[in-house]
Amino acid sequence: MEAKEVEKIYKLANISLEGKDVDDLSNKFNIVIDFIDEIFDVDTKDVEFTEAIYTHDAVFRNDSNSKSVEREEALKNASDKEFGYFRLDWKL
Known about the structure:
The protein is mainly α. The chain contains three helices and two strands. Heterotrimer of A, B and C subunits.
């Protein structure tokens, strides 16, 4: 991942890069990406597939209706909004 891509990700996430070393962040992202690539190389042909853990005792709650957050309240801290929605600049 190049520094330009890191800048794009931070801008999309609305996170400041001020005081951060973009090249260092780029290297850290690349370490994670390389690790993920290694995971895909692991031979799992003899490993039994498990989709769920049946020994887990999850406690479920009943669904309940409640009032939603008003649109104005949800958008009050948005840095950019349009037509009553969050607006994202995808052309970075």
